[in-house]
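# step 3/5: fold
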Amino acid sequence: MEEAGYFIRLAEPSDVEVLKKSVRATLASPEGKGSKKKFEDAVARNELLILERRDPRLPEPKIEAFIEWYTRVDASVTIRDAGCLGEEFKPGAIKRLVRELIRLVRPTSVTVKVRADQTQWREVFEDLAGFEFTGQEYSRPHWRLIYVWTPEAERRAARRAQPRPAAGRERRRPR
């Protein structure tokens, strides 16, 4: 049996209707309420990535998740929204999109605000190397936690993740 793969690409105008019909809960609107998103604007700015699943048993790829952002003049990025299509939350798909966004845009920093009561969204950004909690703000009626990614924070996280020599053993230096 052939495995289903995934493909990440910039959204196209033809994707807008699928997103509007299928997106339920998102980072910006966890209850699935709120105004209809203006995906057209993000598509026109080339600031909307989608993750597609490719299953050989299906005739067409299926959109699974999206991430929308805004790039500022100083090359910093603000993640405006992200979400999965359908009812199931897929943290792995969101993490892939965030990593691809960083690889694609190469920003000086990435900022995201997450509602404090949304544990699954907090865990996505707490698990990604380079994102650090920097503060919180109150926006009626919820507290929002602010996470910022920087290249330096990612390097620090990579150094912390490297295995260290076992205690009591000395590392031998080459002669």
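# step 4/5: annotate
Helices lie at 16-22, 39-44, 91-105, 119-127, 151-161.
# step 5/5: archive (pending)
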